[in-house]
Amino acid sequence: MWWKITLFFWIAVLSTIGIVTPIAGNLTDLAMISQWSAEKTIPVKFRVSDPGAAEGEGWLLHGRDDNGNEADFYFSAPPEGRDAAEGFFVRARYDRETHRVEVAEVLGDYPAFSFPFIPGLEERAKIIFFHVPMSWMTVVAFLVSMWYGIRYLRKKDMEDDFRSAMSAGLGLLFCILATSTGSLWAKFNWGSFWNWDPRETSIFVLLLVYGAYFALRSAIDVEEKKASLSAVYSIIAAATVPFFIFIMPRIMPGLHPGSADDTSAGPVVSSGGMDAAMRVVLYGMLLGFLVLYGWLMRIQIRLHRIKLKRADAAL
Amino acid sequence: MYDFLEQNAIYVVMLIVLMIWAGLFVYLYRIDKQVKELE
After folding, report:
1. Domains recognised in chain A with CATH numbers
2. Is the model's pLDDT at B21 over the cut of 80?
């Protein structure tokens, strides 16, 4: 009972942290964005190093970001609490002619906890907490399906066959969720719902491979034959998973992070290219969904046992 | 609608979370149907 409540709060709290935490950039991000667009504003946090003075109708103060870079920040109206403020969280742009940061909007105080600004992704970077655990759970569920397939072939226990099929079913659910969430995101980040990026192509093939698994199962009526054929199929199918998830998308150029032509991040998590706070939330979400997967498996297995008992009693 | 979501990307993330909830809900609904059959 208690672990289930804990699981609920675990996923709920981490999802909330993942969504609510502000994205805050620094002066380096501002300078980079200003090269692409003179008008675009981004969220920036900085500490006040000199409270400054009135200039024209506005207020000019001096600030320093987390990397120790300094700049003049121009507020078009004197900011509230400018005497006491230690830092600001603002939406601003860098003016390359006056060499100062023009603040468009004050968002609040200096945030204690924030995620880094990633040019081109911004708020959309938060998909990683939801989309990536889905695809990782796909891998786990398909590998567990293979594991029980092997066990069935060795021990000929019908419950192993059932577990193998249920795990493949959950894997397919997670696979569909990873694909559909990624597709919606791609519309807003890459401009189209489907781009045939290597990772999109490979997950599409995985959907076909595991779709065929269930077609195979429903086509055979004799229980033992169904079990051993689908066990063999699940082993062969799972052998393709590491290739489709971990190898092919990394040796080909593509849109996902970690593609062969990606010079910025590499495989985001394993190469350490990810912010520590984001990584903690991502790993926490992964753990939460792993336990959720285990719970759903247990419910299915218990349900299956009850069904078998009922069938025995009816005979 | 598209413009709004493009300007407010956090709602794209929210829609994604709702999609995941919907998927899990459908799965639970199917388990529930099996339990009902047993009852």
Report:
1. 25-112 (2.40.50.140), 122-314 (no CATH)
2. yes
